[in-house]
Amino acid sequence: xxxxxxxxxxxxxxxxxxxxxxxxxxxxxxxxxxxxxxxxxxxxxxxxxxxxxxxxxxxxxxxxxxxxxxxxxxxxxxxxxxxxxxxxxxxxxxxxxxxxxxxxxxxxxxxxxxxxxxxxxxxxxxxxxxxxxxxxxxxxxxxxxxxxxxxxxxxxxxxxxxxxxxxxxxxxxxxxxxxxxxxxxxxxxxxxxxxxxxxxxxxxxxxxxxxxxxxxxxxxxxxxxxxxxxxxxxxxxxxxxxxxxxxxxxxxxxxxxxxxxxxxxxxxxxxxxxxxxxxxxxxxxxxxxxxxxx
Length: 294
Known about the structure:
Shape: elongated
InterPro entries: P-loop_NTPase (IPR027417), RapZ-like (IPR005337), RapZ-like_N (IPR053930), RapZ_C (IPR053931)
CATH class of the largest domain: Alpha Beta
Keywords: ATP-binding, GTP-binding, Nucleotide-binding
Protein name: RNase adapter RapZ
Low-confidence stretches: 287-294
Pfam family, one: RapZ-like_N
Oligomer: single chain
Mean pLDDT: 88
């Protein structure tokens, strides 16, 4: 029996996750009143032959009943019913943008400011986040990336790290990514833009990749960047960080930064963390945007 509690910030993707789990064969119930959670767990276990996989959505919509949840969950475990908690998180600015785009009201806003409602929600859900088995930050995740993470954890039953890393190439002439945690400048590397046969290709094309990587400096930089990230990541995790955006920039974001981002992804993808490589500006002139996800 696998019993998953899906919770987290409003607008972070809980509804999408429940739909994904339902498609994966989970029996899903959303917004069940907190006083009924123990009874629901009892029924789920007694009907194990019918419901071997269950997902229960609980969030701030429970309002005052949320204060009871910690004791209720303790009772569930005391009765011998084991469960996992998936906490969906997202940066505040992204949540605000999503609410403005969808024109939906935050459950705690009641006509007030969304920022205040999000802050209150984060405080009231903090005990759940601390108890979570999995934390997925959707600030920079596309739906297809989220689906792969859910598949990885709850269908393939593979080991999961609560730390998600985005390797992001970009062009300095289009601005530094606002959500970047670490920024690296690779404009010191040989520029394929000045080679006629490479100018209109990108770092996703082998001739450009080979041209950049044949530079001795490219190999040295890649190794030292890899070593530094391997050193930093466990320390970020120890500080409670669950997401890292590593931005690698060149002038236009098409050649050198794309090459180094792809090379770094290949070097790091087998580590125990979840990775995604994206190229923000590779399609600025109508070229195809690509990404890689583990």
